[in-house]
Amino acid sequence: MKYLSLFLLATSISISTQAKIWRVNNTPGVIADFSNFETAVNTAAANDTIYLESSALSYGGSPHLTKKLTIIGPGYHLDPSDGGNAGLQVTTQDAYLSATLQVDPSGTGSKIMGFVCASVYLNGTSNITFERMRVGSVIYFHTSESTNITFRKCYFNASGFLNEYSGGTVNGLTFENNIAAGYVSLTELKGSSNIIRNNNFTSGSGSTFVNAYFVNNIISGNAATSLTNCTIKNNIFRYAQTLPGTATGNKVSQNMDDVFINTGSTDGKYKLKAGSPASGAGLSANGVNNPDCGAFGATDPYVLSGIPNIPTIYSLTAPTSIPSGSATMNITFSTRNNN
Rounded to whole angstroms, what are the CA distances from 20 to 17, 33, 44, 112, 165? Predict the structure, then answer.
């Protein structure tokens, strides 16, 4: 029984016929291709897929993505006793990378989803997608310009989603349907194609944005948000925010007790309350008229616990032992499609 992976059945991500799928699990007694995530990243070839499986132990090392890879974890906030969501995965354990995940320029095109990462370091990379991730502390854009970087349906811990820059810039950032519980500083966005849309910014400290299309967000911190050279439309602010004359459709001085349900899981409490001033208050786009503001609105809303968009096992019943001489055992499991 302990050798059965309870995490994923199959993938709906298209990969070439030459690509391989690798399993990583560092739980003692579990048989997998690798127990060390860094070794798996180094061994995998371009276009391969790595499944980083649930474990009570953290994954360490110094992983550098130097090729195009798809990395998939089981989700996060899975333990209902710790503010998680019940019934989404049969396992209640996350996959936690305690190290910094560095993506180098040769890692262009990679897609990373469904696990907990202490921090991310982007070193002049392009066309990288982080989706349904939980990021612990810091995103670094370092040294040179990164382009076409996407964070979608991610959760950023209250310990600080800090975008720190050491000579790095970003051109073409898409930041959509995320929940950012920490301070956000996006001061080195370049160009005119940076989109900050349908997010929840919940930090008590005011965040900073420049050169961005800032639309349909909910900012629940009780401090001013700095918005320089931004298009500002249809956002919900708790603070009595002073906005430029070009801003349209925004609501300030809103009571967040009227906006969110404020009960339930760590991420689920940010669902909109019935009659919320954020309901139907968003700017129409992509064929959706008057979408809800915030992470759970628009055409591709936030997914609780970052469950990957592949089939998962969410219920399992199996015997604790097999009678001596028995050649079979009965196992009942239930799966769901998470598209």
Answer: 8, 11, 8, 16, 35
Burial class (CB in 10 A: 0-12, 13-18, 19+), 70: buried
* Both tokens assigned to 2: 């302990």
State which H helix or E strand residue 190 sits in: strand 189-190
CA–chain centroid gap for 28, Å, is: 28
pLDDT tens digit string along 113-158?
A: 999 999 888 888 899 999 999 998 777 776 678 899 999 999 998 7
Q: Is the whole model's pTM more than 0.85, yes or no? A: yes
Q: What share of the chain has pLDDT > 90, as a percent?
A: 65
Question: Within 13 Å and on the Cβ side, how many CA atoms surround 182?
Answer: 18
Per-residue confidence at 13, pLDDT binned at 50, 70, 90? very low
Q: What whole-number distance in Å separates Cα of residue 227 and Cα of residue 170?
A: 16
Q: How many CB atoms lie within 10 A of CB 265?
A: 20
Structure tokens at 243: 């906005």
Give the Cα separation of 62 and 291 in Å (integer). 41
Cβ-in-10-Å burial (0-12, 13-18, 19+) of 71 comes to: buried
Q: Facing residues of 263 across strands?
A: none
CA distance 138 to 121: 8
| Concatenated DSSP letters of 226-267 | EEES-EEES-EESS-----TT-BS-B-S--HHHHB---SSTT
User: Counting every residue, how long is the chain?
Assistant: 339
Strand segments, DSSP code E, in 20-143 are 21-24, 49-52, 64-65, 70-72, 96-103, 111-113, 116-122, 126-131, 134-142
Which amino acid, residue 132?
R
Q: How far is CA 64 from the centre of its chain?
A: 19
Distances (CA, A) of 80 to 75, 93, 227: 13, 10, 37
Kind and range of the H or E run holding 41: helix 37-43
CB 187 within 8 A of CB 203: no
